[in-house]
Amino acid sequence: MSFTILGTGSAHPKYVLTNDKLSEFLDTSDEWITTRTGIKTRYISTDETLCGLATSASRHALEAAGVGAGELDLILVSTLQGDCLTPSLSCMLQRELGAQCPAFDINAACSGFLYALQTAAAFLDSGRAETVLVCAAEMMSKQVDWTDRATCVLFGDGAGSVVLKKGSGLRAMRLTARGDDRDLLVIGSHSGNNPFAQVQYPAPWLSMAGGEVFRFAVTSMVHDIRTVLEQSGLTAKEIKYVVPHQANLRILKAAAERLKLDEGQVVTGLERYGNTSSASIPLVLDELARDGRLSRGDILVFSAFGGGLTTGACVIEY
Amino acid sequence: MTTLEKVSAIIAEAKDLDAQDITAESTFEDLGLDSLDTVDLIMNFEDEFGVTLEMSEDLKTVGDVVELIDSLRE
Prior knowledge:
The structure holds two protein chains of two kinds.
Chain A: E1 3-11, E2 16-18, H1 19-25, H2 30-37, E3 41-43, H3 50-65, E4 74-78, H4 89-97, E5 103-106, H5 112-125, E6 131-139, E7 157-166, E8 170-177, E9 185-187, E10 206-208, H6 210-232, E11 241-244, H7 249-259, H8 270-273, H9 280-290, E12 299-306, E13 310-317
Parallel strand pairs in A: 4-5, 4-6, 11-12
Antiparallel strand pairs in A: 1-7, 2-3, 6-7, 8-13, 9-10, 12-13
Helix pairs in contact in A: 3-4, 6-7
Chain B: H1 3-15, H2 35-49, H3 62-73
């Protein structure tokens, strides 16, 4: 069914923002952030553009896959917001790579990489594409309120890409959406200057009901992973790595406990990246691949949860 | 086992505390638990007692939680 991952790539801004540096302009501390989230540093954009990060990650993935940009049949980019509303980030990436195929963006917040993989699978299954580039790129530093110590410390910037070829690696996939009617996780947007507008839009940065989101995250991660394991006829023991969305170490620990996963099975990168929304899974996946920790045939589980509210999980035979 | 004993045992187990030190009057703050610990425990209580617990600012002590669980199980 569907696809095989041919190659992975990732990129992040060069500036490393430490917890100590954050304490210089926010009422917080390394100890507070570390014990509550597990995050030590994150990469924050200075002179980088999101298109630049997406391009760099995707070039690495194409190189690892041994695929030329001209061979791509489709480019999918998962992002909350590209550098512009139009052109889409995927079209900007297509131009930078010198590809000629169709390209469009997908926004399912932190679950976007899973939504993009499922979309790619549909194109590959139906014979509408043979080779697909999926990139997840996020500039969370643009989306947070840098005066809100409860949220801005959690996020970082980055991009991760995978090149997919028709194959049989996708063993099970589950996506969910449940329209958020309680404003648990909201990022407003620019509201223009329409002189006739009478609507008050949410503020153009992230706000989150931490406790409720924590509960939603743990509950959905446990349920989604159990479901895809069942669909693929596998047990938790047979998983080589769970690569979860990197939001908060406490979420991952709470979910891993309930799923009876060993610590070594759950891969984390949030200590160094913070929460990079949909980019977090392919960023960590690329580290695994480049460190030589992945072998062909390994069973991987991805699991994500985020704004929308959306969730997704899949089982992939690498 | 009373609800209080069960709740205390779950907190003690999850957070590596001595169940003897947990009373109905203990606040989550007294026990050194932050907001995410509290949410984590509430999910454990839901599994154990088969109830759905709404998050609320009013749940400050172990006794508050016991009272809520008992009211839902009646």
